[in-house]
Amino acid sequence: MVGPEMDARIRALDDIFLPFNRSDAPGMVVGVAHHGRLLYRRGFGLANLEHAVANTPTTRMRIGSTSKQFTCLATLLLAEEGKLEVDASIRTYVPELPVLAGEPTFRQLMTHTGGYRCYLDLAVIGNAGAMLKEGKALSYQILQQDVNFPPGERMAYCNGGYHLLSVAVARASGMAFETFLKRRIFDPLGMRNTDSVPNDLIVVPRKATPYVRQPDGRYLHGMTPVEDMRGEGAIVSTVDDMLIWLAHLRGTKQIGNEASWAQMLTPATYSSGLVGTYCLGLARETCQGTEVIHHAGGVVGGASQMITLPKHELDIIVITNGAPANPDDLAWQIIERILGETLPGNKPPRARTSDSKGLVGHYWSETTKTLVEVVDEQGHLVLNWLNSIQSPVFVLEDGYGVASRGVGPLTFRQAPACQETGVPVLELTSCGHIERFARLPDVPPSAADFARGLTGTYVSHDLEAVASIRFDGTAVAFDMKGEYGGWTSDLQVIAPDIATSAVGPAVYGVPTVLYADRDEAGIAQGFWLSTPRSRNLRFVRTSPIITQD
Fold first, then answer.
1. 353-439 and 447-541: same fold?
2. Contact 522, 453 (CB under 8 A)
3. Among 25, 332, 428, 528, which is 20 to 30 Å from 519 by CA?
C-alpha cells in the first residue's frame, strides 16, 4: 500500500503516542519500517528529567532482554569456527558450575530450558536489589544446590543462563564479551550506536536516563542491580540501529551462515515432545494468521519490544525510559494501523468470568510446590503464576489457554474433583507436562494459626541469606537479610502452610511464594521460597521456636 492512504495511516501513528508526547515525564523512542522503507522515526517525552533533555530518534536506550538474540548469534558464530559445540554442556567452558540434575547444554540455556535458577531473581530476593559486585552473578549460579527442573523438561526464563553463555563466549573467543559483539556483529552491520554496557554506572553519551515512577508521582533513577550484566540484557542501542538489525534478521544475512540462522529460528522441543515458540533468543509464533518474530525486554526504569512480520516486511522497535506504557501493546497498535484489514486472522476470545463460574480461586500442586491463581480482572479471567506472572486467559475448544511470558506453553481445564477429598481440581499442562492443582479453601486460616510453629530464624545456602518470620499479634512479617541488603514484607496467608509476600522486595518487585515444611506436631523445621524463575529455595531453621500466646 502506497500513496495517500498509507500516508494517512502513518500520520495516525501520532495518535497512539500522543499521551507520551510530554515535556515533564520520561518517554520513549519509536522506529517503523515497511518493505525496507522508513515510515516512522520519533522520540517522545524526556530523556533526562533533571535537565529537560528531550528524547529524539538518536537517543540511546537500554533494550533489556531484547539483547538475548545477539548473545545467541555470538555463540553460533563461535560454533561455526569450531570453538564451541552448541549441544555440549555449559560446564565445558564453565567447569566450576555444580553438577545438579544434569548438565544443560548451550542450546538449552539459549531456549531457557536449562533448568537453572536465575541469579537476578536470587540477587533481588537476597539483597533487595542492592548492587552486585563484579563476578557475583556467576558466583550465585555456582552456589546453587538445586534446579527448577531437569534440563530440557520445560521452560523457565533465566537471565542466569544467558550470563553463563556470556562467560563461555568470552572464554572461547579469548576476548571480552562486549568486544566480541562490537567486532563481530555491531560494526560489520553498521550499528554504530550500539554497545553492550555492563552497568548503569557507566556514562554513555546520548543515553536516556531510566526512571521509575513512585506512587506519589515522583521519579527515581532506575538502576539494574549488577555491575557485570552481559548477554542477559546489557545492550544500549537506537531505533535506527535496531531497524538495521531487523532488516538483517528477516532478510539476506551478512552475519552468520544459513545453518546458524536455521538454529536461531527453530523453537525448543520439551521432553514431553511438545514444541514451544521460543527459539534462540527470539520468539517465533503465528498471531492473527501471520508469522511474527519478536522479543521484549525490561530493565529497571525501561522496557522494549522488537517485532517483525516477515511476510509483510514490517519492522517495529519501541524502547521506553520510564513511560507508563507497554511496548508490546504499542507495537500491535502500530501493526493494526499500518496493515489494518490485511491481517487475515482473529485473536482468540478472552475468557469471561461470567462463563466460568467457580473457577476463580487459588490452586496448589503438591508435586512441584507451585501456586496458581485464577483471577477475575474486570470481567475476564487472568492466570497468576507463582504470585508474579499475570497472563490473560483465552478460550480453547477443550479448556483454556494462557498467553504466558517466560514459562512456556500453558493450558488448563477443570478436572473431576479428587475422589478421596472432594476438592475441586485444575488440570494444568505446562510445556506438555500435566499437573493436578487442588483448589485451596476460599477462606484462609488466621495469621496466628499460620505463624504458630513457624516463627524464628532460617538460613539458605543458595542465597547466602538469613530470613526471619515474626508475628506481632496481627500480621506475619517476613524479614530477609543478605550480603548487600535486606527487605521486609507482611505475608498474605493463603492456606495453612502457604503464603505470599504482599509487595515483594523493595521497588524491584519480585513477589514470592512461601511454603512451610512442618512436622507432625506442626513445628516448621524449614520452608521453601519460590519465584517463577528460581523455585523451591530451601531455608532451614537456625533458632528455637518463638512461642506466642
1. yes
2. yes
3. 428
Structural domain boundaries of the chain?
A: 61-66+189-342, 353-439, 447-541
Fold of 61-66+189-342: Beta-lactamase (3.40.710)
Is a pLDDT exceeding 60 seen at residue 374? yes
Grid cell digits, residue 354:
461470567
Helices (H), 385-451: 447-451
Fold of domain 353-439: Lipocalin (2.40.128)
CB 531 within 8 A of CB 510: yes
Q: At what angle do helices 136-143 and 159-173 cross, to 10 degrees?
A: 110
Residue 202 · residue 146 · CB < 8 Å: no
Q: In the 3-class helix/strand/coil scheme, how is 65-129 assigned residue by residue? A: HHHHHHHHHHHHHHHHCCCCCCCCEHHHCCCCCCCECECCEHHHHHCCCCCCCCHHHHHHHHHCC
pLDDT tens, position by position, 158-181:
999 999 999 999 999 999 999 999
Residue 256 identity: G
**Whether residue 356 has pLDDT greater than 90:** no
What is the structure's pLDDT at 509?
Answer: 62
Average pLDDT, the chain: 92
Give the DSSP per-residue string, 433-471.
Answer: EEEEEEEPPSSPPPHHHHHTTT-EEEEETTTTEEEEEEE
Distance, CA of 324 to CA of 383 (rounded, Å): 23
Asked if residue 403 has pLDDT above 60, the reply is: yes
**Which one is the CATH code of 447-541: 3.40.50.720, 2.40.128.50, 3.20.20.140, 2.60.120.380?**
2.40.128.50
Mean local confidence (pLDDT), 113-132: 89
Q: Is 457 left (phi over 0), alpha (psi -120 to 50) or beta?
A: beta
* pLDDT average, residue stretch 209-213: 95
DSSP H helices, 445-544, are: 447-451
Q: Over range 107-132, report the average pLDDT.
A: 91
Predicted pLDDT at 546: 58
CA-nearest of 324, 377, 263, 461 to 19 is 324
Residue type, 308: T
Cα 442 from chain centre: 30
- 256: helix, strand or coil: coil
